[in-house]
Design a protein that fits this description.
Oligomer: single chain
Protein name: Transcobalamin-like C-terminal domain-containing protein
Radius of gyration: 16 Å
InterPro entries: Transcobalamin-like_C
Organism: Candidatus Pseudothioglobus singularis PS1
Strand content: over 45%
Structural class: mainly beta
Pfam families: DUF4430
Helix content: under 10%
Number of domains: 1
CATH architecture: Beta Complex
CATH topology: Ferric Hydroxamate Uptake Protein, Chain A, domain 1
Shape: globular
């Protein structure tokens, strides 16, 4: 008879993503989810909220979150662990538990 044994290191590792999406009185969402370690933030965010994007030469630019669209002189600012990100969500790799905030801001 054969038995099946599973070892913890054989399953993919997970990290906790905490996502906050804010835009004045238009949306205030907070969600927490375990996601695959090494996943980029863009793919992880899409698991939690409907994301509308515009394809650019730099990668996807987030244009709407949960149906709330950035229009005219507004954009979705990306903060990772409390600091504004210098790269797009596609280039933020989740290796540890991470807090991401997308806040609609004026430019």
């Amino acid at each position: 008879m054969f038995s099946s044994v599973s070892y913890a290191d054989e399953s993919p590792e997970s990290v906790q993503l905490t996502l906050a999406v804010t835009a004045d009185d238009r949306i205030n969402l907070t969600a927490v989810k375990m996601v695959e370690k090494g996943l980029n933030a863009y793919e992880a965010i899409k698991q939690l909220v409907v994301v509308g994007v515009k394809d650019t030469s730099y990668g996807p630019q987030i244009m709407s979150m949960g149906g709330v669209e950035a229009i005219e002189n507004t954009y979705w600012a990306l903060y990772v662990n409390g600091s504004m990100s210098m790269v797009g969500a596609q280039d933020v790799i989740l290796l540890d538990d991470t807090f991401i905030r997308l806040n609609m801001e004026d430019f």
